[in-house]
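Query structure, 151 tokens:
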């Protein structure tokens, strides 16, 4: 095996090991997703939603749960495609590039639809509730920012 092929193989193995480590860290050792926990606690316990608001938010959550499951399945398929492309090309070739682009597209779609979901829930809230919701979302997205950190 030539030196270039060995180096390429080492790079691919290192990349796969990094992916596996990241996956293991996120699924096995990761703490509960703070954003969802805080938002659900806020929505269901602290905002004093009326019955109509609860019904609307429940419907919004059900629609999003279905869509999120579909996007998660698509993400798994995209990751499998990436793994297959890496196995076939053993380098950063056109199929790997296409698989990475597809993975990024799915991740971007998940982020967009998550934000649409948040804004749909926010639209159900009264102004005071929306202000509390906004503070919780901001804290979840940027937990290290304090009011003095804004620029």
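Result returned for the query:
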């Amino acid at each position: 095996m030539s030196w270039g092929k060995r180096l390429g193989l080492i790079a691919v193995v290192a990349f796969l090991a990094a992916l596996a480590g990241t996956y293991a860290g996120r699924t096995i050792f990761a703490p509960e997703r703070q954003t969802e926990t805080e938002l659900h606690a806020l929505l269901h316990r602290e905002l004093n939603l009326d019955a109509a608001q609860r019904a609307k938010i429940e419907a919004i959550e059900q629609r999003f749960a279905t869509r999120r499951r579909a996007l998660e399945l698509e993400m798994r398929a995209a990751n499998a495609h990436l793994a297959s492309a890496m196995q076939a090309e053993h380098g950063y070739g056109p199929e790997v590039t296409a698989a990475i682009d597809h993975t990024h597209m799915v991740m971007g779609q998940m982020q967009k639809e998550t934000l649409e979901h948040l804004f749909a829930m926010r639209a159900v809230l009264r102004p005071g509730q929306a202000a509390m919701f906004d503070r919780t979302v901001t804290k979840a997205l940027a937990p290290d920012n304090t009011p003095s950190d804004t620029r």
